[in-house]
């Protein structure tokens, strides 16, 4: 039996393409804060297929920046508690993003 897929938060390992960039990114984390800039992003990622090339290879972005989802990562039952935590923390994330505009951080 196939259960409904909740894609409000893409799973780790998903590959996306952003609206303003042709490169592909693989999602490695959620809800990252940047204290110096006092902002936060929905996702953190690495370039795909290149991956980790040091601390400057991390790219942070928001769900609204995604133009295409190229691959959806593993959707196991372990994900359900994580989705609950993400949903509970979402109002604070949105508040942080609105304070600075939540711009994409492509440090690399």
From TrEMBL:
InterPro entries: DUF4176
Superkingdom: Bacteria
Protein name in the entry: DUF4176 domain-containing protein
């Amino acid at each position: 039996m196939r259960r409904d897929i909740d894609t409000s938060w893409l799973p780790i390992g998903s590959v996306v393409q952003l609206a303003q960039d042709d490169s592909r990114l693989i999602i490695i984390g959620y809800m990252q804060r940047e204290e110096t800039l006092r902002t936060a992003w929905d996702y953190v990622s690495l370039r795909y297929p290149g991956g980790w090339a040091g601390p400057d290879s991390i790219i942070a972005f928001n769900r609204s920046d995604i133009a295409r989802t190229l691959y959806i990562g593993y959707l196991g039952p372990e994900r359900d508690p994580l989705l609950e935590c993400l949903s509970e923390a979402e109002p604070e994330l949105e508040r942080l993003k609105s304070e600075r505009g939540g711009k994409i951080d492509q440090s690399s």
